[in-house]
Structures are given as C-alpha cells and as structure tokens.
Write a structure and sequence with these properties.
Helix content: 40-55%
GO molecular function: carbohydrate derivative binding; glutamine-fructose-6-phosphate transaminase (isomerizing) activity
Order of helices and strands: HHEHEHEHEHEHHHHEHEEHEH
CATH superfamily of the largest domain: Glucose-6-phosphate isomerase like protein, domain 1
Number of domains: 2
Organism: Methanobrevibacter ruminantium (strain ATCC 35063 / DSM 1093 / JCM 13430 / OCM 146 / M1)
Number of helices: 13
Protein name: Phosphosugar-binding protein
Keywords: Repeat
Number of strands: 9
Strand content: 5-15%
CATH class of the largest domain: Alpha Beta
Distance between the termini: 35 Å
Length: about 325
C-alpha cells in the first residue's frame, strides 16, 4: 500500500530546489534586517515550531543573536512588547492559516514590528499579513507530517539567520545547504529498507522516548509530537539528552524504546552518556541515529539528514499498525 505521504516525501528535493531558486534574494534581504535587530522572535506550532527550536539551538552554540521561540498563543498572552521595538518577528506555518500563529503575527504588526511569514500557501492569510512574505514551493501538502514544509521551512530559517550570525563557518553551512537537495535525494533512496525493517521490529511498541542535544532537540520534538503521535498514533515524549537523568532514567527499563539522535556535537557527550547508561546498564532498547552513518557535513545541519530516515521509520511504523501515516483523527476539527 502506498500512501500520499510517500509521494510528498519523494518531492522534498525538488521543493528545496524551487524554494532556493525563488526566494534566495528575498531571504538575503531579510537576513540583513536580522543582523541589525536586538531580538528575533520565531513563532510556530506543531512541526513548524520544531524548526524554530532547531535553528535557535544551532545558533545559540555559535552566535550572539538573541532568539526567542514561542508558540502562537504563548507569544500573544505571555510576551511583553514595546511599540516600534527593534526586533524581527518570523512566523512559520504550512497552511499560513494556523490560528495561533496568525493571531501572534497580527499582534506583532500592531506593535509595528517587522514581520516575516514563511508558508507553503501563497494566498494564505499569513503571507498577506506579513511585511516580508516567503513562500516555500512545496505545493499544497495533505499528509499531516508535512515533509516538504518541514525541510523547506528549516532551510529558509537557516538561509535568513546564519548569514546574520557572525558564525565563522557560515560559508560552509550555506554551501552544504545549497547541496542539500542532492543529499536528501540520496537519503530517500538509501535509508528506506533499514527503517522499514526497524519499523516492523518495533510495530507493537506503544511508546517511544526521543532524545537529542543542541540542534537535534527540535527534531526530537518533531519526531515525538507530530511524527509518532500524529503520524503513527504512538505515545511519545521528546527530551534534551541532558534531561535523561532527570526523570527518564526511572523509566528506561529493559526493552523500553529510546530513540537517540547523535551528531557528534560537543554537547552530544551527554547523548553518549545517556546511551551508555540506558543501553549498557538498564538494558533499554536504544535506537541510535548517528550522523556519521549518513553524511559528512557540518553537524549543525544534522536535522536535514536525520529527518529522512525518521520519516521512513514513521511511515512504515504507521503502515504496520494499519494506519495511514498522513491522515488525522482530530486535528482540524477542534478550533480555539
């Protein structure tokens, strides 16, 4: 059985190429603004906020940029703003109609803050509302996991923020990012079978813990909150690797599945310590994704790489449980 998500996964490389070709100049201009403000607000919900977490944590390790991440309604209710403040507001949404994020965007406009919207829908409310719109060219997505949206959104955030960061290896990041469509294509072809087998092996598990450090926490969040819970209908919980010993260590019992993302970042020393304890001492079932097994790139780009095998894993995990990985049961039916 082939689900709609399959086609959308395979379209990711071309979505990246089209977005780079169409929006690079626009993003370069916005990057100049990002480099001149005191604070950058990144706003999203669900999968979109995971891209915000990733770029924030990537830059926190190499830059002095002040970046704050909020869900839409948390920004509306819990962020004090000043009229005309020297900040940049960047909203992310697949549909451009996410009520939480759209409300936050309108609030930022009320305070005369420069606003950016990154969305996959050119006629959406968020694209029309923002001062600086960016359209990711992935075409409308129907599968809930939003594969094309995730990877193009994340790429746009990197293209805007890394050139403004002062990071000494920004040129390397940008060059490798430009080559990402080809790498994603290779990963789509090379990682399917192993992750299909892994999904069949773990199909009867009801819960997963997902851990990553630094830039990979955002992807661990996406893996748990949207990929496993929404796509595969499995219980899941995301954690920073450093938080393993604060709570999870009491649940990492024999056979309990823990998914680790390890990119050999400096902070992945904590990921490796968690793996050693969980696997070697507590006999938990540790599923480890190592960046070095997939690509030789700057580890701050790891989410672009890890997401592909994880998509295959979740795709087949849903399939082996009789679920369509792109469908939903309740999302979109509850409005507030």
């Amino acid at each position: 059985m082939r689900y709609k998500m399959y086609d959308e996964m395979m379209e990711q490389p071309e979505a990246l190429r089209r977005t780079f070709a169409s929006e690079s100049e626009n993003m370069a201009n916005i990057s100049k603004i990002a480099g001149s403000v005191e604070t950058i607000y990144l706003i999203g919900c669900g999968s979109s906020i995971s891209t915000c977490y990733s770029v924030r944590d990537a830059l926190a390790s190499v830059s002095d940029l002040r970046i704050e991440v909020f869900t839409g309604y948390e920004f509306v209710y819990n962020k004090k703003l000043n009229d005309g403040e020297n900040s940049l507001f960047i909203a992310t949404s697949q549909s451009g109609e996410t009520a939480d994020t759209l409300t936050a965007l309108k609030r930022a406009n009320e305070f005369n803050i420069d606003t950016v919207s990154i969305s996959n829908e050119p006629e959406s409310s968020m694209i029309k509302e923002a001062k600086y719109p960016i359209v990711t060219l992935g075409n409308t997505e129907t599968a809930i996991l939003g594969t094309k949206t995730y990877i193009t959104q994340l790429a746009c955030l990197y293209q805007i923020l890394f050139p403004a960061s002062g990071y000494e290896k920004t040129d390397e990041i940008m060059e490798q990012l430009a080559n990402m469509p080809d790498l994603v294509q290779e990963l789509l072809e090379s990682t399917e079978e192993d992750n299909k087998n892994l999904a069949e092996e773990l199909k009867d598990e009801e819960g997963f813990y997902c851990l990553g450090s630094g830039v990979n926490y955002g992807l661990a969040y996406k893996l748990a909150m949207t990929m496993l819970m929404e796509g595969a209908i499995k219980h899941a919980c995301p954690l920073y690797s450093a938080e393993y010993r604060h709570g999870l260590i009491e649940r990492a019992e024999e056979g309990v599945p823990l998914i680790f993302l390890d990119a050999d970042l400096e902070s992945d020393e904590l990921t490796k310590r968690a793996i050693a304890n969980a696997r070697d001492e507590l006999k938990a079932n540790c599923i480890i994704y190592n960046l070095r097994d997939y690509a030789d790139i700057n580890p701050l780009l790891a989410p672009f790489v890890f997401v592909v095998p994880l998509e295959w894993f979740v795709y087949y995990l849903a399939h082996f449980n009789g679920e369509d990985p792109g469908s939903t049961r309740h999302i979109g039916k509850v409005r507030y």
